[in-house]
Protein: Peptidase M48
Organism: Iodidimonas nitroreducens
Amino acid sequence: MGMKRLVPASFLLIFLLVSCTTAPVTGRRQLILVSEEQSTALGVASYQQIKEQLPVVANTPEARMVERIGIAMAKVVEGAEGFAWEFTLFKDETPNAFALPGGKVGVNTGLFQVAKTEVQLATVMGHEIAHVMAQHSAERMSRDMATQLGLAVLGASTGSQEMVAMVSGVATLGVALPFNRSQESEADRIGLIYMAKAGYDPHAAVDLWTNFAALGGERPPKFLSTHPLPEDRIERIQALIPEAMAYYQP
Ligand SMILES: [Zn+2]
């Protein structure tokens, strides 16, 4: 994990050095305590695991669509120079998609139940890529680490060895957990701009979330637990479209 050498003093120094990170577009200040190298390593390892567990769909029109959108978006995002992007379609009927640090993006075949056009699929992929570019995983891990560190400092009884073990454990667990509400809103806003820059009309986001809302009672619990209700989202998305349209290149 590369975290073995962390001791409290250097941890605080890192805290001071990196706490000035800001999210793209929104400029929101972020606390990021893990290096891009560390979060990328976690993302790549998790993606590898998922590829071993779920069947990958390749060379179908849907798989090519996922790749086409991904490549178009990878060209317009800034700050992803070190990424080895991958855009994979997984055979899984849950309508969901995910993105991991380092540029690993997965789309489930079930997502095509709600993403009925390429531009609608681009809405979801833009959102997921926005989570990556805004370092939301690293931010979540950092918050957990800071919480644990705070507890340890308060207790004043934890040895540095124990703390290192604890911090490493938190970082390992953090990569696959859900994002919080402000991260979801931020990913919506940034994602609309990415889709617009990549040549996809952001108005399609409204259709996509309307389709999700129409899933109603059949909406899978997994999606509910990781994302806000589509009904609540549509109104916010509509308000964000004018900003994204300024970047739209048909
Ligand atoms: Zn999300």
Observations:
- The chain is about 60% helix and 10% strand.
